[in-house]
Amino acid sequence: MGQAACSRDFLLLLTLLGALTGAGARRSEPRRAAVGMNVLFIVVDDLRTSLGCYGDKIVKSPNIDQLASRSVMFKNAYAQQAVCAPSRVSFLTGRRPTTTKLFDFNSYWRVHAGNFTTIPQYFKENGYVTMSIGKVFHPGISSNHSDDFPLSWSIPPYHPSSEKYENKKTCKGKDGALHANLVCPVDVLEVPEQTLPDIQSTAEAIKLLQIMKHQNSPFFLAVGYHKPHIPLRYPKEYLKLYPLENITLAPDPDIPVDLPPVAYNPWTDIRKREDVQALNVSFPYSPIPQDFQLLIRQSYFAAVSYVDTQVGQLLSALDDLHLTNNTIVAFISDHGWSLGEHGEWAKYSNFDVATRVPMMIYVPGMTADVHPDSRMFSFIDPLSYAPDQVPEGKSRKIVVELLSLFATLSELVGLEVPPKCPETSFDVQLCTASSSLAAYINVTDDEEKGFVESVAYSMYPRPSDTPQWNSDLPDLKDIRIMGHSMRTVDYRYTLWVGFDPNTFNSNLSDIHAGELYLLEVDPNQDHNVYNRTFSETLFMKILGLLRK
Ligand SMILES: *[C@@H]1O[C@H](CO)[C@@H](O)[C@H](O)[C@H]1NC(C)=O
Ligand SMILES: *[C@@H]1O[C@H](CO)[C@@H](O)[C@H](O)[C@H]1NC(C)=O
Ligand SMILES: *[C@@H]1O[C@H](CO)[C@@H](O)[C@H](O)[C@H]1NC(C)=O
Ligand SMILES: *[C@@H]1O[C@H](CO)[C@@H](O)[C@H](O)[C@H]1NC(C)=O
Ligand SMILES: *[C@@H]1O[C@H](CO)[C@@H](O)[C@H](O)[C@H]1NC(C)=O
Ligand SMILES: *[C@@H]1O[C@H](CO)[C@@H](O)[C@H](O)[C@H]1NC(C)=O
Ligand SMILES: *[C@@H]1O[C@H](CO)[C@@H](O)[C@H](O)[C@H]1NC(C)=O
Ligand SMILES: *[C@@H]1O[C@H](CO)[C@@H](O)[C@H](O)[C@H]1NC(C)=O
Fold first, then answer.
1. Of 5, 199, 265, 308, which residue has the fewest beta carbons closer than 10 angstroms?
2. Judging by beta carbons within 10 Å of its beta carbon (0-12, 13-18, 19+), is residue 203 exposed, middle or buried?
3. Contact 144 CB / ligand 2 (< 6 Å)
4. So what's the pLDDT on residue 7?
5. Which ligand is nearest to the CA of 367?
6. For ligand 3, which residues put their CB under 6 angstroms from it?
7. Mean pLDDT of 72-84
8. DSSP classification of residue 368
9. In the predicted model, is pLDDT for residue 347 greater than 70?
C-alpha cells in the first residue's frame, strides 16, 4: 500500500473520530437523517444503455441487471450535456450547464459561476461521511484539481495508481509491439502493476465499506468506474463473451442525408488512437471500415461486462457486510456513447445514443423487500452465468434528467429537499433545477403513478456550422453555436442557435439548424423532419428553458 493510501486512512480515522465526538460539523449542528440510510453512488464513465436490463440482446451484464431487478429503473433518463465534466458538474450540483457555465473542461464552477453546494457536500454538512473513489468529479481544473475536496468529501478522494497507464502504450498489437490503441484487451498479469484502475477502485471501495460498517455515522460512498471510456482496455477474457460473428454493425451506420452538419460530431478522440490512425480514415465524414467498427463494438461490450463484474463484486461485498438493509444504491452513467449510429462515434452530440443514460435506484424496503436471511446481491460471474437468470424489476417510462439526483437522494434519506432554483440562481448556494423522483420510486404497484408530461433538456456547443478538429469539445472562447435539445416520450427536438461565449447568451433569432425526430416512427433518430413540422409550441418551450 502506498503512502497516499496510508494518509487517507489516517484522515478517515480522524474524520470518524470528529463525527463521533460531534466535532465534524462546522457550519451547524448536523441534522441527522431521519431515515439515516447510507448511499452507495455508482457512476460509470461513458456507459450507454447497452445493458441486459435495458433490453440489449448482446451485452452480458448480469450484476447490473440484478441491481435493476431490486431497483426502480428509469428507462428514459438523460444527461444534460454529453461530455464528462459538464455532465458531472451538472448532476453533482443539481444545476444546468447554463448555470454552472461549464461547457468544456476548463473552469471551476465555484470561481466561474457560483459557490453551488454539491450532493456530497450537502450530505457531509448533514452528518454523513462522504468518500470518493475513482472518477466521480472529472479530474482537473473543473473540480479545482482536488475533486472538490475538502468541500465535497470528508477524506481525500482515492484514485487508482494504475490509472496513469491508461493512455500509455500497453496494448499488444498484431506486430507484437505495445501501442496506445483504442481496442485494447490485455492480459492483466502483463500490464504495469498487474492490475487495472477499476479493479483497484472496487478493492478500495470494499475496504471503506468494511471500515464504515463499524461506524455510527451514515456514509455517502461514491464509486466512479473508468470503463467503458476509451481506451477500451480491459481483461482479454471478456472477449470470449462476444464472438465477432455475433457482433453486428449499428442498425443505422450511415450519416443521414438530412443531418445538419452542425449536429455531427467528428469523433476526434477516436482518431487519435494508434490503431484508428493506421486506418487512414479521412476527416470528417469517411466511415471507419466495417471490420474495425465490429471490433470497437465488440470491445465496448466486453468492457461493459468487465465493469459489470466490478459492480457485482462491490454489491456482493455490501451484502456480505449486512449493509443492504440500510444502504441506498444509485447507479448511473455520466452520458452515453455512439457506437457507429449515424456514422458517429463517442459522445459529443445531442442524439439519444449520446445523452441517454442508465439510471436505477435501489432503496431497501421500498424497491425490494429485505429479508434478514436471504441475500440481496449475489455475485454473478458474467464469464460463466446462464443468461435469462435475472428477473426484471420495476421500471418507469417517465422522461427524467440526471439533474434530479440531488433532490431525489436527499428526499430518500430523509434530508430536507433543497429548494427549487429561482430563474437566476448564481447567488443561491443551495437549490436544484429539478424535482425529486422519490414519488416514482416509492410506489407499491408496478404501474406508473399517473401520467406526467415530462421533458429532459440537453445541450451541446459547437465552434462552427461544419465539423472542425475542435467540434467535439470546443473551448468556451471558441463556442459560437449552442444546440439546445429537448426529449419527450414522443420526440427529440434540437435547435442550433448562435451563442456568445462572453455573455453566455443563446440568440434565438439566430437559428443555424434544427432537428426534429418523431420517435414512434423513427426511434433511432435518422429522419430529420424539422422543416416540415416546425412548431411554435416547441420553440416556446425551449425559450422557457433558456430564461430559467
Ligand atoms: C463556498 O461555500 C463554502 C461552504 O459553505 C464556504 O466554506 C466557502 O467559504 C464559500 N466560498 C466562497 C468563495 O464564498
Ligand atoms: C482550490 O484549490 C486551491 C489550491 O488547493 C485552494 O487554495 C482554493 O481555496 C480552492 N478553491 C476553492 C474555491 O475551494
Ligand atoms: C453467438 O450466437 C449464437 C447464434 O445465435 C449463439 O448460439 C451463441 O450463444 C452466441 N454466443 C455468445 C457467446 O453469446
Ligand atoms: C495508410 O497510409 C500509410 C502512409 O500513407 C500507408 O503506409 C498505409 O499502408 C495506409 N494504411 C491503410 C490501411 O491504407
Ligand atoms: C440490518 O441487518 C443487520 C444484520 O442482519 C441488523 O443487525 C440490523 O439491525 C439491520 N438494520 C436495519 C436498519 O434493518
Ligand atoms: C413511501 O410511501 C409510504 C406510503 O405512501 C409513506 O408512508 C412513506 O413516508 C414514503 N417514504 C418516502 C421516503 O417518501
Ligand atoms: C441575434 O441574431 C440576429 C440574427 O442573426 C441578429 O440580427 C442580432 O443582432 C443578434 N442579437 C445579438 C444580441 O447578438
Ligand atoms: C427548409 O426550409 C428552408 C426555407 O424554406 C429551405 O431553404 C431549406 O432548404 C429547407 N431545408 C430542408 C432540409 O428541407
1. 5
2. middle
3. yes
4. 54
5. 6
6. 241, 243, 246
7. 97
8. B
9. yes
What is the CB-side half-sphere exposure of residue 179 using CA atoms within 13 A? 19
89, 142 in Cβ contact below 8 A?
yes
| Predicted model pTM | 0.92
Which residue CA neighbors atom 1 of ligand 3 most closely? 246
User: Would you place residue 443 in the very low, low, confident or very high pLDDT band (cuts 50, 70, 90)?
Assistant: confident
Beta bridge partners of 500: 505
Q: Spell out which residues line ligand 5, taking CB within 6 angstroms.
A: 322, 325-326, 372
For ligand 2, is residue 110 a contact (CB within 6 Å)?
yes
Nearest atom in ligand 4 to the alpha carbon of residue 280 is 1
pLDDT at 545 exceeding the cut of 70: no
Binding-site residues, ligand 7, Cβ < 6 A: 498, 507, 509-510
Q: How far, in Å, CA of 362 to CA of 442, rounded?
A: 10
Q: Which atom of ligand 5 is nearest to the CA of 370?
A: 14
The answer for residues whose C-beta is within 8 angstroms of residue 213's C-beta and 6 or more apart is 321, 322, 323
**Residue of 53, 138, 159, 179 with catalytic role:** 138
pLDDT of residue 65: 97
Share of the chain above pLDDT 90, in %: 83
Q: Where are the domains of the chain?
A: 3-162+192-228+304-546
Q: Are 151 and 121 in contact (CB under 8 A)?
A: yes
| Alpha carbons 461 and 153: distance in angstroms, whole number | 31
Q: Which helix (H) or strand (E) holds 56?
A: none
Residue 184: active-site member: no
Looking at residue 148, what is its pLDDT?
A: 98
Residue keyed to cell 415530462: 454
Q: How confident is the model over 31-40, as a mean pLDDT?
A: 70
pLDDT in tens, 492-527: 999 999 999 999 999 988 999 999 999 999 999 999
How far, in Å, from the CA of 510 to the mean position of ligand 7? 6
| 242: nearest Cα among 166, 172, 183 | 183
Which ligand 6 atom is at minimum distance from the Cα of 414?
Answer: 13
Ligand 7: which of 480, 496, 507, 546 to mutate, judged by most atoms within 8 Å of the beta carbon? Answer: 507
How far is the centre of ligand 3, averaged over its atoms, from the C-alpha of 384 (Å)?
Answer: 14
DSSP for 57-119? SS---HHHHHHHHTSEEEEEEE-SSSSHHHHHHHHHHT--HHHHT-SSSS--HHHHT--PPPH
Give the chain's mean pLDDT. 91
Q: Which CATH class is domain 3-162+192-228+304-546?
A: alpha beta
Residues with CB under 6 A from ligand 1: 115, 151
What ligand is nearest to the CA atom of residue 514? 8
Which own/partner contact pairs does 522-531 have at CB distance under 8 Å and 24+ positions apart? 524/251, 524/252, 524/341, 525/342, 525/351, 525/352, 525/492, 526/252, 526/256, 526/342, 527/256, 527/258, 528/256, 528/258, 528/259, 528/260, 530/493
Q: Whole-angstrom Cα distance, residue 17 to residue 120?
A: 19
3-state secondary structure of 541: helix
